[in-house]
């Protein structure tokens, strides 16, 4: 069994690179050895490392790390798509965040990446009808990472949340693939409605720091929302919106705003 796992791991270039980066980090700073061995080098795959990391971060006197690892492992076993999304998220952070120089960093240090991976387990639990466990994950993610994502929210893959402080994503929100957002973003409601009441964010959208998108509105694919904006009405695809309330100020400026991370206004906008 060990040989089979080792063979699979050796065919995984992403995991091979992560373990190489981990060993280099230990060699250069031995004081980090305990953390890096526990989180990376003691494991045979990315999903096992993520299972350990998520469980170690979320465990408490009320829920042991052992129980949480069993839950996370069960989710990964039942739905390989969660692991696929975690890989896409990892590459998104590496490619879009100029502060990320190694694949190792998001797994060990970046709370945006860690919070999204923990949310994915809570979302799986919600889909299974394990609502109390899902709420527990939401609570601990909020307490530990400062990120509050309802487990019923639907979030695609290739997600990058930079800095990630004070992110709020409501129950009926939908976030597409390859979306980037910065800190203090809210995808919220506009009142006490109990039905479908949160935004629907298209693929490739870039949401600037402090932006609030409120209500059951659509934000079209490859659009940009400027920092500090309050969006209360639908945003067409491939546009830039800014202001309170937000209005269209120009085109998105490129095919993939969430990848370019360019938050400057188009030339000639007022």
UniProtKB/TrEMBL annotation:
Q: What is this enzyme's EC?
A: 2.3.1.30
Q: Which GO terms describe its cellular component?
A: cytoplasm
Q: Give the molecular function GO annotations.
A: serine O-acetyltransferase activity
List the Pfam families.
Hexapep, SATase_N
- Residue intervals of the Serine acetyltransferase N-terminal domain: 14-118
Catalytic reaction annotation: L-serine + acetyl-CoA = O-acetyl-L-serine + CoA
Which EC class, in a word? Answer: transferase
One GO term under biological process is: cysteine biosynthetic process from serine
Q: Which family does it belong to?
A: Belongs to the transferase hexapeptide repeat family.
What name does UniProt use for this protein?
A: Serine acetyltransferase
- Name the source organism: Leisingera aquaemixtae
């Amino acid at each position: 069994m060990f040989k089979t796992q080792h063979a699979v791991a050796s065919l995984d270039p992403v995991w091979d690179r992560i373990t190489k980066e981990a060993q280099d980090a230990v060699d250069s700073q031995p004081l980090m050895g305990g953390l890096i061995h526990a989180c990376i080098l003691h494991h045979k795959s990315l999903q096992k490392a993520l299972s350990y990391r998520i469980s170690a971060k979320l465990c408490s006197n009320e829920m042991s790390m052992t129980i949480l690892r069993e839950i996370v492992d069960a989710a990964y076993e039942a739905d390989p798509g969660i692991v696929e999304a975690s890989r896409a998220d990892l590459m998104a952070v590496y490619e879009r965040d100029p502060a990320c120089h190694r694949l190792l960093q998001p797994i060990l240090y970046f709370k945006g990446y860690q919070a999204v991976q923990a949310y994915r387990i809570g979302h799986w639990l919600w889909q299974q009808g394990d609502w109390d466990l899902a709420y527990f994950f939401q609570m601990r993610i909020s307490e530990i990472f400062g990120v509050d994502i309802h487990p019923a929210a639907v979030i695609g893959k290739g997600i990058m949340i930079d800095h990630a402080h004070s992110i709020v994503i409501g129950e009926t929100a939908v976030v597409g693939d390859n979306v980037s957002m910065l800190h203090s973003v809210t995808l919220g409601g506009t009142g006490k409605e109990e039905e479908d009441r949160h935004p629907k964010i298209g693929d490739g959208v870039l949401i600037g720091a402090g932006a609030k998108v409120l209500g059951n509105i659509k934000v079209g694919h490859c659009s940009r929302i400027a920092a500090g904006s309050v969006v209360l009405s639908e945003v067409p695809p491939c546009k830039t919106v800014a202001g309170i309330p937000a209005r269209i100020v120009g085109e998105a400026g490129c095919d993939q705003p969430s990848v370019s991370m360019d938050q400057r206004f188009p030339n000639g906008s007022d």
